[in-house]
Specification:
Layout lengths: L2 H4 L8 H15 L7 E5 L3 E5 L7 E3 L5 E2 L9 E4 L4 E4 L14
């Protein structure tokens, strides 16, 4: 067997599995999050965010979550009627979440 044949090919997790990982993670670090977006990222990962202005966070092929936080609920609120995020006049304090699990 050649050295290149020994390398394990990384494969993107199925979307449903990525969704379950993201939702479980967000339930811990951003309880009551209003919504999130998920899309394919690169050849093997998923990207996700809560507020469209957020720095993109990631789900890696091994299921590791790489979290960069969200403007919600510190700087923006979610308007259920319009489905839009609205900037707050005064930010609220938030406890920092771990970068990954």
């Amino acid at each position: 067997m050649t050295k290149s044949a020994e390398v394990t090919q990384k494969v993107r997790l199925p979307r449903t599995e990525a969704e379950m990982l993201v939702e479980a993670y967000l339930a811990e670090v951003a309880p009551d999050y209003p919504t999130y977006r998920l899309c394919e990222d690169g050849e093997t990962g998923w990207a996700f965010w809560i507020d469209p202005r957020d720095t993109t966070s990631y789900v890696h092929s091994d299921g590791l979550i790489e979290w960069y936080g969200s403007a919600w609920p510190v700087y923006v609120d979610y308007d259920d009627d319009t489905g839009l995020f609205v900037e707050k006049s005064e930010p609220v304090e938030q406890v920092d979440a771990p970068v990954s699990v």
